[in-house]
Fold this sequence. Notes:
By secondary structure, this protein is an alpha+beta fold. It has helices at 13-31, 44-56, 68-78, 95-99, 107-120, 144-154, 161-173, 232-238, and strands at 4-9, 35-39, 62-66, 85-89, 124-131, 134-136, 139-143, 178-184, 190-200, 222-228, 253-258, 260-264, 269-272, 275-279, 282-293. 31% of the residues lie in helices and 32% in strands. The model has no long low-confidence stretch (mean pLDDT 91). The chain has two domains: 4-122, Rossmann fold; 136-290, Tumour Suppressor Smad4, CATH 2.60.200. Its cofactor is Mg(2+). This is Diacylglycerol kinase. Residues 1-134 form the DAGKc domain. Pfam families: DAGK_cat, YegS_C. Belongs to the diacylglycerol/lipid kinase family.
Amino acid sequence: MTSEITLFVNPTAGRGRGAGAAQPAAQALREAGFAVRTVVGNDAPDALERAREAVGAGTGALIAVGGDGMVSLALQAVAGTDTPLGVVAVGTGNDFARTTGLPVRAPAEAGRLIAEALKGGRHRTLDLGRVGERWFGSVLASGFDSRVNDRGNRMRWPAGRLKYDLAILAELAAFHTIPYRLTLDDEEPREIEATLVAVGNGPSYGGGMRICHGAEMDDGLLDVTVVGDCSRATLLRVFPRVYKGMHLSHPAVTTYKARSVRLEADGVTGYADGEPFGRLPLTARVVPGAVRLLAAE
Length: 297
């Protein structure tokens, strides 16, 4: 293993925490004897190209510094390769880091953990979800939650989480169920009316909403959560339960496990790890052991 590793930095993550987090993480890695190179792109495509160049050149590890969006970008570079992934989680949601037990908003601690894992040859081999040529680590969302994302992304004001709280209220006012066609593995398609359908490689999205509660990132399966036809009042009662995963016991919620999931619905965008993956139809497949995550024992 080369002693040169690459910090992959989003300077805007967590309202500017990304830029500040890179320095203590890099210092911890350098104190452990590693040569650290930093990659910051002009935009997401440029950053990804630079990360892929670093992986192709044999960097000892790619360390994502930022939130779930930065982890998602890093996965596109390291998935299916032997290059291990490190995460310095300083974003807003940090679902990937929380799920995998990594430090959150503690960049020096995260840097030390990564250094120890590299020196000890320790990593966790995790599954990833794949849609076409794109990879995701946590959840592919569609329906009510993806429409909230759509609306929030169009809003110029306010900033931060408040924007998405307002987007939720606006989507509730326009709430209606969606006709889906859901296909699991090689089974016959199911025609369903649903509020949302989430496909989880991991359990949570949106900063701790455990929509696919119980999903394991190394079991070779995707967890599917369907919130069916329900009223606005029912949705308001059920939605807060998602933070503890207690929504799964509600009669309107159905769950499945599968290796591939095809979602079809008109006018619905799929979001994975908080990033837009395109309009449905989309087919998600699990790829076992697709990434090597640097982690504690």
